Amino acid sequence: GDSVTQMEGPVTLSEEAFLTINCTYTATGYPSLFWYVQYPGEGLQLLLKATKADDKGSNKGFEATYRKETTSFHLEKGSVQVSDSAVYFCALSRNKLVFGAGTILRVKS
Amino acid sequence: DAGVTQSPTHLIKTRGQQVTLRCSPISGHKSVSWYQQVLGQGPQFIFQYYEKEERGRGNFPDRFSARQFPNYSSELNVNALLLGDSALYLCASSLVQGPQPQHFGDGTRLSIL
Predict the structure, then answer these.
(1) Best residue of B49, B104, B106, B108 to probe chain A, by most A CBs closer than 10 Å
(2) Which of B18, B63, B70 is nearest to B49 (CA)?
(3) What are the per-10-residue average pLDDT scores of chain A (109 residues)?
């Protein structure tokens, strides 16, 4: 069945550092890909999405490119802030959402 | 505009009891999905409803059931609660069925004693 694998955390960075969170997927067909973010005590917020190969999703300085050849959708940000500290989930969807286990990001000032 | 709203926010039950969780989707959204998020893990799909019909079911026992009402709100019912049912239950809505971005509520935290 469909599945998503994310790099394990926690990832701890200093403010203004470069962020990469790796995500790979296994799926039949061509799913849509998403990154969601979850702040403590809250539900999930959609961060960005891509619906076909080579699409780049971007939002709030975060980017991810749908790479069909490597079945990957890595999340990147050039300069993280303390306020980016949260749990990040990679997900795919052909109908229902299938999530990875999540990656905790901690940004120190 | 109001987002997805869920009630109650927190709930404490004992083993063997039954619970009903409620969800109101974003206005205009016709699809509602339910997910279970155990602490430290990603959400797991339970059900999807679209136009009041069940359109998908995850790998959960028959103790879990749901329904969608004519106003597109939804309820998730869990019978014969087990300790392992302790989790954050998330409701998500989208305009239509399919690989759409889903918008999540803040969830109901269910604790089983």
Answers:
(1) B104
(2) B70
(3) 92 97 93 94 92 95 96 97 97 92 96
